[in-house]
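tool_call: predict_structure(chain=1)
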Amino acid sequence: MATVELRFSALPAHVRTARLVAAAVARRSGVDEAVLDEVRLAVGEACSRAVHLHRQHCPHTPVMVTLVDEDKTFQVSVTDEAPRGGDESGGGTLADLAKSADLEDPVVPGMGLAVISGLVEDLAVEHGADRGVVVRMRWPTST
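tool_result:
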């Protein structure tokens, strides 16, 4: 099992770097070439969501991306450290996150999750240990 960890400041410009790193690691892990655009887009959406939340709530805390090449699976986890908006239920569904979304904000973090769910069959959205959310995405590999 190979793991790559990437931490970056909450700046939109770093989302592109995260997408490029994810695509490179996915390719090396054996993700089908036809799926690499979906990996790039899904990772970009998850990172954009995390950057947006960090810029609002914890701008000096880095966003964490973990890329893992496991047996026949490539997994990407994007972790933010933003407050949960009062939703302490522990549920990780898109509906739970949509309830806590700020509808006055033009960039609704839950919308990125809707896009991701259309791109990734194996998607989990979980609350972090103390705060924040972890978006886990998995794709099959040929190795």
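agent: The chain has one domain: 2-140. Proceeding to next step.
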